[in-house]
Amino acid sequence: MKAHPIAGDSVIAAVLGALESISAFAMPGGVNPVVFWLVGLGLLGPLVIRRRYPLLSAYLVLGAGFVQLLTHGPNLGGIDARMRGADIALGISLYTVVAYVSRRQGALYVLWLAVGTTAWAVWRQGFPGAVTPTVVIVVIFGFCWSLGEFSGARRAYHAEVERRLALLETERDQQARIAVGQERARIARELHDVVAHAVSVIVVQADGAAYAVRSQPDVAERAINTISATGREALTELRRLLGVLRSDDGESDRAPQPGAQSISDLAERVRAIGVPVRLDLTGELDDLPAGVGLGIYRIVQEALTNTIKHAGPGATAAVHVQRIGDRVELDITDRGPGTDRHPRLAALSSVGGNGLIGMRERANVFGGTLQAGPHTEGGWRVRAVLPVSTA
Predict the structure, then answer these.
(1) 3-state class (DSSP) for residue 252
(2) Inter-residue contact 299 to 362 (CB < 8 Å)
(3) Nearest-CA neighbor of 306 among 271, 260, 353, 366?
(4) Residue 329 in 3-state DSSP?
(5) Which residues have C-beta within 8 Å of that of residue 383, sequence separation ≥ 6?
(6) What CATH number does the domain located at 278-391 have?
(7) pLDDT tens for residues 91-104?
(8) Is 371 helix (H, G, I), strand (E, B) or coil?
(9) Element (H, E) at 144
């Protein structure tokens, strides 16, 4: 149904009459001085809390702007009070909402500013005189929006940087703890290899010396010399490890780490104990990386130590180390009555002996594999494959 034109005109006339009655005390003599200063306080005062309460501050300023729209006229001691310097608070509030709250709240605030600016231009200024001031106001509000976008983006960037720095610090601490744990495990392996080998040799030689001290003094003397040499070597390696632990800069004097080239000396020491060792070294083993060479040496050392401890009297061992291209293959076997007489010992060693765990860890560090268990022909066999290229 179409509205009657006379009724529509009556509604418009009523709205205009209400607006005129609201601002009647400000016309024609301008605005009351008390209202002028109160509105100024309402525009500028909330800016004090704009950082802590940005939305509350912005809408308090907006409310003061609408009060100014309804109360301020063109004459205040000869000054046009319809626009005043304190109105810049509206632009500052827009910047604050965009920078500290969100674009969505900023867009809603812009909508209210558009309503107020349109009402001011149509009702207070009138056309065409309102065109230029309205363009200036739109430019100022647009600049405040852009400034808020830039500031908000920088704040978000700095917040993200701080978050990532905190995350990196957490990861750094975790990596440090992991590195400490890995270093402790490495030192524990080194200590086990040094102490277990040395103590096993010393115990075997001491038993032999005690047995032969009266009947075969020469044999007892050689055994004691072997005990002395083994003890000195163990002390040297222990001092080296303790020097690494005590040194802050990592530049303390240290003995060279044993490598694949030291396996021959190791075999000679085991032969001196009374365990025949057949050694077969094939391929280029001198130019291996230091870590791989040390791993090979420690695996062979632990395997021969287990031969001394568990294979029993009359045991023999065979060590075969071969480099084939980019990998090194180790095969250590022994023959002796110990592994045949005590199969449960072999099963226990394959499950969880510390020496076997250390050998597997050394192989895994370099991406290799290690297998240990009873040999099909009797005795015990340790077989490992260590890649060289990934070391």
Answers:
(1) coil
(2) yes
(3) 353
(4) strand
(5) 329, 330, 331, 332, 370, 371, 372
(6) 3.30.565.10
(7) 999 999 999 998 89
(8) strand
(9) helix 131-212
Residue the block writes with tokens 């280029």: 284
Whether residue 263 contacts residue 281, with contact meaning beta carbons closer than 8 Å, is answered with: yes
Owner of token pair 């085991």: 270
Q: What are phi and psi of 316, to 5 degrees?
A: -130, 160
Q: What does the pLDDT look like over 150-193, one tens digit per residue?
A: 998 998 888 898 888 888 888 877 877 777 777 677 767 777 76
Using alpha carbons, select from 235, 362, 391 the residue that is nearest to residue 301: 362
d(CA 326, CA 391): 10
pTM value is 0.43
Reading the block at residue 220, the tokens are 């007892």
The answer for residues whose C-beta is within 8 angstroms of residue 225's C-beta and 6 or more apart is: none
Length of the chain, in residues? 391
- Give CB contacts under 8 A, 24+ apart, made by 84-90: 84/40, 86/39, 86/40, 86/43, 86/44, 87/43, 88/140, 89/43, 89/44, 89/46, 89/47, 89/61, 89/64, 89/65, 90/43, 90/61, 90/62, 90/65, 90/141
The dihedral over CA atoms of 303, 304, 308, 310, expressed in degrees to the nearest 10, equals 20
User: Distance between CA atoms of 353 and 345, rounded to whole angstroms?
Assistant: 10
d(CA 386, CA 369): 7
10 Å Cβ neighbour count for 10? 10
Cβ–Cβ < 8 Å for 270, 284: no
CA–CA separation, 346 vs 360, rounded Å?
A: 16
From the list 320, 284, 307, the residue with the least C-alpha distance to 355 is 307
Do β-strands 277-282 and 316-324 pair in parallel, antiparallel, or remain unpaired? Answer: parallel
Q: Both tokens of residue 127?
A: 């056309």
What does the pLDDT average to over 7-21?
A: 46
CB atoms within 10 A of CB 29: 11
Do 149 and 94 contact (CB within 8 A), yes or no?
no
**The pair of three-digit structure tokens given for residue 203, joined into one six-digit string:** 């115990």
Q: Where are the alpha helices (DSSP H) in 311-342?
A: 337-341
